[in-house]
Design a protein that fits this description.
By secondary structure, the chain is mostly helical. It is built from five helices and three strands. Strands 2-1-3 form a three-stranded mixed sheet. It is rod-shaped, with a radius of gyration of 41 Å.
Length: about 240
Amino acid sequence: MSADSTLLNLQECDTYVGALRDHLEALPESRARIEADTKLTQLSASYDDLHTERSAAEREVTKLDDQAETLGDKIARERDKLFGGQVSSPRELAAIQSEIEMLERRKSEIEESELAQMLTLDESQETFDSLSESKSQTAIEVQECAQKEESAKAQLGAELHTLEAQRVALAAAVAPDLLIKYDTTLSRFGVGAAAFSKGVCQSCHMKLSPAEVEDLHQEKLPICPNCEAIAVFDES
């Protein structure tokens, strides 16, 4: 079982494959899409919260307006009784007058509450409109980022597919027992094979003495004593 330059070609291919997979896992386009998604989620939450608050305020305004209108109708009826001549008893007239005053106070309180709710709605309108616009724009941004991410993944995926096909062809040219050792070493240490030139491992850059290099040459399968990659010697 001997190591040759075929292993170095395989290692180079595996290095590219690993780098490409790492790149796919950390695409700038993916990061931009995630950031846009996060921003949209936050904006949507703020928009929904404010929408809920405004809906409650609008319902309260409607309720108070109905109450004020009901009281206004009742006040009108009481005034008709007071000034219509149907009641002549001073005591009854005084009671009606007292009822009218009580109803007017209650109506005034309701109208003040209604005005406060309307002011709240007016004050939040600008914020609500801004959130709505930001949410719409960010949704568009998310779509654009997703399209860019998909395009980048498709391009890198095609490159990865080509490299993986090349890897299959290169691996087929390696002796089975040597390939098993290479794959095991690659899986454990991240490097399966490394060139040795002038006594220096080109993977970990450890320099061996001439005697150590000679000893490695005598091994059936030379292994770098430092990074444990299969040693492929530069015979030039």
